[in-house]
Amino acid sequence: MNAPASDAPSASGLQERIRTYYRETSLDYRMAWTSSETLALHFGYWDERTRSHAEALLNLNRELAVRMGLRPGQRLLDAGCGIGGSSLWLARHYGARVTGITLAPNQVGQAREASRKLGVKAWFELADYHATPFSDCSFDAYWAMESLCHSPDKPAALREAARLLVPGGRIGIAEYLRVARPLQEKQERGLRDWLDDWAIPDIAMAEEWREWLEQAGFEDIRITDITDNVRPSLRRLQRMAWFWGFGEWLLRCLRLRTAAQHANIRGSRRQGAALSAGSWRHQLITAVKRGSATDD
Prior knowledge:
The chain is an alpha/beta fold and 296 residues long. It has a domain of 197 residues: Vaccinia Virus protein VP39 (Rossmann fold), CATH 3.40.50. Helix content is 47%, strand content 18%. It is built from 11 helices and 7 strands. A 7-stranded mixed sheet has the order 3-2-1-4-5-7-6, with helices on both faces. The chain is globular and about 55 Å long.
């Protein structure tokens, strides 16, 4: 499962694509999605009490934290931390001792600057979540908010997560999950067009995540479909992508937008089409590392 396609980029090539994507789309996210309040590069979670996009973005942090059973003051790794949105929220609301890691140097700088400006203590480093510089059992919790999609070897990422966690440590993942492997030909092609635009090598099925977590040493695995709660956020992105479509295409023709920036907008439309085709769902995954929990 999750075997790379024969034309898949090398690990170093994929990492460079990811760095380029997040460096060159930084302005897109800042203008259209995130804010100084949220710093979120993920989708939002809407319930009956949600009144705004910014509130929905913070809600997804809350939902994952609650489902993980996080406790105040725990040591937490934010794997694929973006510009620090979840890390700083967890430090502020849970008193978590957070270390965020990302492949993108520009994101490390932005996250550190946000930490300083907000007066919220968290640590941010340039690192690959497949092979981190941290010692065994360094963390009580492992957080991956729409970031493990970029992994070309998700079982390896989960094995590293298990190494880093103490026995009884919690893992929480928010991710896009494909509904079958393979999909029907047209669905598969549409899904892969979207993923390629966003520098994502592939997404996995729920059954695959469950198997990989078990093999890595996790138990009490829970997978919850939150697509209906995320759908308003997805619709917002589709409206924005279609609204800016022609103007963005013109700027691309004039070479005022890069290939990565153009792919970001195109991928936003393709993601919605893949959802409408029933190719993927948005889900939360939580699990516990086998063994007895230890005191902090």
